[in-house]
Write a structure and sequence with these properties.
alpha/beta, binds phosphoric acid mono(formamide)ester, single chain, about 15% strand, 5-stranded parallel sheet, binds norvaline
Length: about 300
């Protein structure tokens, strides 16, 4: 494993190795056991979009690993004035030991990996959000002890979260059911991957998708960069909400995850959100541990 560009690139074994290391690093952190695996290393973090969790968890994680994080806002870099990503990659490769990038086009992340010679970590693109899905898988395994026999249900936009969840959950052996409107289906490449799995289901009806689910997940109706479509999307996604009715058809002990930020009373009711806040905020915490594992795997 040289980069973390998308879940499609990872094998089941690589995913499990990252999750095992993440569990170990979480244990060590909670017990005050130092783990300075990246002493003397620097991670550059390029942000073309806003972030709370990704920025703070990478920055803190790098510090806890003994390395140095470098926040690089696209507004300040020459990349924001049109310097090609191919050149940025070759320059930064000579200064630092790894790059985490959050941007719009997946191609930009793939280009960084192709032209640079240091590990590239995808901190979210319009196509996928692999760091989030590793944290989600870690959280599911933490609460449910296993992936075997579990059914994950995702309700809402077939966006970056849906694309990565489908691949990650199917790869580790869980069944996956998605309910989305016809015009907002996941990426064709992801559907092509999923078509070989009998335990993958795509439907329009959230109640059908949520039936007997062990994990119920949603995400915002309008992602970063889609702000102008917000009103149109509010209409299209009417009914694609995690609420008491949906939870009533899921398993009694079903957990709820949300990558955050959440829009209460849109994709999830405030009531369901608060009833499952312990799972959702553990998921947010696990970003830190999962990403530390990714950095150690790629940069040590
Ligand atoms: N879930 C997530 O990636 O959060 P941020 O946008 O705050 O980084
Ligand atoms: N789908 C959301 C996820 C945010 C973490 C977005 O891209 O804005």
């Amino acid at each position: 494993m040289k980069h973390l560009l998308k879940m499609l690139d990872l094998s089941k074994e690589e995913i499990i190795e990252i999750l095992d290391l993440a569990d170990q690093l979480k244990y060590e952190l909670k017990h005050g056991i130092p783990h300075p695996h990246l002493q003397g290393k620097t991670l550059g973090m390029i942000f073309q979009k806003a972030s709370t969790r990704t920025r703070v968890s990478f920055e803190t994680g790098m510090y806890q690993l003994g390395g140095q994080p470098l926040f690089l806002s696209a507004h300040d870099l020459q990349i924001g004035r049109g310097e090609p990503v191919q050149d940025t990659a070759r320059v930064l490769s000579r200064y630092i030991d790894g790059i985490m990038i959050r941007t719009f086009a997946q191609k930009e992340v793939e280009d960084l990996a192709e032209y640079g010679n240091i590990p590239i970590i995808n901190g979210l693109t319009d196509f996928c959000h692999p760091c989030q899905i590793l944290a989600d898988l870690m959280t599911i395994r933490e609460f449910k002890s296993t992936f075997d026999g579990l059914k994950v249900c995702y309700i809402g936009d077939g966006n970056n979260m849906a694309n990565s969840l489908i691949v990650g959950c199917l790869k580790v052996g869980m069944a996956f059911s998605i309910a989305c409107p016809d015009d907002y289906q996941p990426d064709a490449e992801v559907l092509d991957f999923a078509k070989d799995y009998d335990c993958f289901q795509m439907v329009n009806d959230p109640m059908e998708a949520a039936k007997n689910a062990d994990v119920v997940i949603t995400d915002v109706w309008a992602s970063m960069g889609q702000e102008e479509e917000a009103e149109k999307r509010r209409i299209a996604f009417n009914g694609y909400q995690i609420n008491d009715d949906v939870m009533a058809v899921a398993k009694n002990d079903a957990m709820v995850l949300h990558c955050l930020p959440a829009h209460r009373e849109e994709e999830i009711t405030a009531k369901v959100f608060e009833e499952h806040a312990n799972e959702i905020f553990e998921e947010a915490e696990n970003r830190l541990h999962a990403q530390k594992a990714v950095m150690v795997k790629l940069m040590k």
